[in-house]
Specification:
The protein is an alpha+beta fold and 82 residues long. The protein contains three helices and three strands. It has one domain. The N and C termini lie far apart (31 Å).
Length: 82
């Protein structure tokens, strides 16, 4: 089963929701195409602040992402490394 088939099995409009979220992230990247992304957990905010050339996107600006409920979990950071 592909990821798209799995998403469609869970929710018929899941593929559209995923596409909307991906489109919003792509728009914020301004044509850059990262080859890596880092997902940081609690307590790693200081590390994220040291990253240079990172694109920081508030989770609230990514369609269909849940709003963060933990202090400090406000941003998604993508590194446009080529």
């Amino acid at each position: 089963m592909t990821a798209t088939q799995a998403a469609n099995a869970l929710a018929p409009d899941a593929t559209a929701m995923i596409d909307e979220a991906a489109d919003a992230v792509r728009a914020r990247l301004g044509g850059r195409k990262p080859t890596a992304a880092i997902v940081l957990g609690s307590g790693l905010g200081q590390f994220a602040e040291r990253l240079t050339d990172a694109v920081r996107i508030p989770y609230t600006e990514i369609p269909h992402f849940p709003a963060p409920t933990v202090i400090g979990h406000l941003l998604a950071s993508l590194l446009p490394w080529a």
